[in-house]
Amino acid sequence: MCGLSKITASIAAITLSFMLAGEASASRIKDISAVEGVRDNQLVGYGLIVGLNGTGDKSSTVFTGQTLTNMLAKLGIQTAGQKVDSKNIAAVMVTATLPPFARPGDKVDVTVSTLGDSQSLQGGTLVMTPLKAADQNVYVVAQGPVSLGGGFSAEGASSSVQKNHPTAGRVINGGIVERSLNLDFQSKDELLFKLFNPDFTTASRLAKAINDKTNSQGAVALDASTVRVKVPAAMYSRTVDFMASIENINVTPDFPAKVVLNEKTGTVVMGESVGISTVAVSHGNLTIEINTEFQVSQPAPLANGQTTVVPNTDLKAKEQKAHLIVLDGATNIGDVVRALNAVGTTPRDLIAILQALKAAGALQADLEVI
Fold it and tell me: Taking a C-beta distance cutoff of 8 angstroms, is the pair 91, 67 a contact?
């Protein structure tokens, strides 16, 4: 219990050090927003992994056998309708992410995950697999050896061992881009910046920072998440240079007051704008202790009784005394932390107190439980 208390105290100290950090520092525009249209695209495909050492799909997996038959037919090998069984192959879903501005010939990593009952993809090789986007066009073709990242599995007559997750892996640089996206960035005459965390104040500050930097009024906040920036006439056909000149501008983001609670781990995170009104708080714990001792009941000599084990249970309930403490109103995170620490709570007790403060209307913040 002593070691657990030290760990809890350390976690609480780390959590409070984050909460007691100073005011929100400025961030670059590129770190709090993204340009509309400049994004990743998801790809998916269906393929086969070969070369497994008897750990592939079983013969009962119908689609694996059908896929193998079709693949052999395309290679000029006819099976004459016979069922092809092999424990050295596995059907997999292949996924990848196509980054923006990817050009034909670029390489990307792909992820493979089993569809059937294969036990392990260790030592396997992905056979050429086309990957499609939502528009059903092929953008990447993937092939290569599968890496499990140190994962493996082994099975004996009566025991087995497994490390990590051997039924999913990656093919490093296994996808080759065959088609590029139609994104003509240089010809854009305006840019739309989308904030990762929509906020009216942040959007207004971002637009003002760009206008101050470019000495113009070309940046306008359209709503809480979107800022439109006109490309100056002198920078037409040089949109990349204009983007590079403004994406490193520092902007101080603003956030609504919020408290995030994770009851599973006992984690509490507070934003800097959290405040509390003057309120009285009392918090105590009820401890129940149950001790059971087993005693032997021995019958008298020459008696017809039997020796039995009789449990003797002792139950004690103890409630800690809790004093009513007045928490003065606090308008900054440092005062909030000091006020809550005055109650002498653990992180899990703090969750209950914060929920009660919110129910009483004394917590000026949005309370989110995850």
Answer: yes
How far is Cα 50 from Cα 94, in angstroms, rounded to an integer? 14
Give dist(CA 268, CA 19) in Å, integer.
Answer: 10
Alpha-carbon distance values, 69 to 62, 74, 77, 84, 118 (Å): 11, 9, 9, 7, 18
> What distance, in Å, lies between the first and last C-alpha atoms of the chain?
27
R_g of the chain, CA atoms, integer Å: 32
Pairing of β 258-262 and β 267-270: antiparallel
Hunting for tokens 């932390």 — which residue is that?
Answer: 337
345, 327 in Cβ contact below 8 A?
A: no
b vs e for 231-258, b when ≥16 Cβ sit within 10 Å of the residue's Cβ?
beeebeeebeebbeebbebebebbeebe
* pLDDT tens digits, one per residue of 80-89: 767 777 888 9
Going from the C-alpha of 62 to that of each of 71, 79, 90, 117, 201, the distances in angstroms are 15, 16, 11, 11, 57
- Token digits for 126? 């992905």
308-356 per-position pLDDT tens digit: 766 776 666 565 665 566 666 665 666 666 666 766 667 777 788 888 8
Sign of CA dihedral 162, 165, 168, 172: negative
Q: In a 10 Å sphere around its CB, with 0-12 CB exposed, 13-18 middle and 19+ buried, how is residue 31 labelled?
A: middle
For residue 27, the 8-state DSSP code is E
Query: What are the residues facing 231 on neighbouring strands?
Result: none
Residue among 57, 134, 129 at smallest CA distance from 94? 129
- State the DSSP code for 82: P
